[in-house]
Amino acid sequence: MRAPIGDFDDAQPATERRDLLPPPVAAAVTAEMVHVDSDPEKADTAVFAATYGESLLRQSANCVVVAGKRGQDVTLAACVVLSHTRVDVNGAVRRRLGARKASFAPMETAVGATGMEYGGITPVGLPAGWPLLIDPAVVETPWVLLGSGLRRGKLIVPGKLLADLPNAEVVDGLGI
């Protein structure tokens, strides 16, 4: 199979690669998603694009875990923005979560709560009930390169499909 974007030697339907995915992601992948195997040492966006195709810089998205706090209550959520932007944590995220304060969740919290590796967190297979906030530019991108839940491998997903994931909400101004 040829990947819809990038220059990969090893691309297969994600449903046929469940053995290369962490359990929550393996349970959630669909036939429209493509898994590309890749070197975990080259997982960071800039190095990854230099290795597998510079055009991936405009088609890559990052998924980050944020914590919104109001009093003693903490709400964890995932945010997805194109990799050449950043998440508006103190504006769009804080307002959407109804929090007094919002920040990136500590690495231990993000990894422990998702069951995924840091640097590979993906919106596919998030914990039930988590808000999933997505920038409109991600949904408008025909094919989006995302983490696979591990630093080894990536998922290539139709952008519009992300808006159909559980608890997904497209939030204007999320990526700045």
Task: Describe what you observe in this structure.
With 176 residues, this protein is α+β, with helices and mostly antiparallel strands. The chain has a single domain (11-170), classed as YbaK protein (Alpha-Beta Complex). It contains six helices and nine strands; from the N terminus they run E-H-E-H-E-E-H-E-H-E-H-E-E-H-E. The protein has a five-stranded mixed β-sheet with strand order 5-3-4-6-9. A four-stranded antiparallel β-sheet has the order 1-2-8-7. The model has no long low-confidence stretch (mean pLDDT 95). This is YbaK/aminoacyl-tRNA synthetase-associated domain-containing protein. Pfam families: tRNA_edit. InterPro entries: YbaK/aa-tRNA-synt-asso_dom_sf, YbaK/aa-tRNA-synth-assoc-dom. Residues 1-22 are annotated as: Disordered.
Helix content: 10-25%
Count of runs of 4 or more consecutive helical residues:
6
The secondary-structure class comes to alpha+beta
Helix-strand sequence:
EHEHEEHEHEHEEHE
Number of DSSP E strands: 9
Radius of gyration over alpha carbons?
15 Å
Region (Disordered): 1-22
Pfam families: tRNA_edit
Protein name: YbaK/aminoacyl-tRNA synthetase-associated domain-containing protein
Organism: Actinacidiphila epipremni
Short key terms for the protein model shown above:
YbaK/aminoacyl-tRNA synthetase-associated domain-containing protein, YbaK/aa-tRNA-synth-assoc-dom, 176 residues, 5-stranded mixed β-sheet, 9 strands, 4-stranded antiparallel β-sheet, YbaK protein
Write the layout of secondary structure elements.
Layout: E1 11-13, H1 23-28, E2 34-36, H2 45-52, E3 61-70, E4 73-82, H3 89-97, E5 101-104, H4 107-114, E6 132-134, H5 136-140, E7 143-147, E8 154-158, H6 159-162, E9 168-170
Parallel strand pairs: 4-6, 6-9
Antiparallel strand pairs: 1-2, 2-8, 3-4, 3-5, 7-8
Organism: Actinacidiphila epipremni
Region (Disordered): 1-22
Protein name: YbaK/aminoacyl-tRNA synthetase-associated domain-containing protein
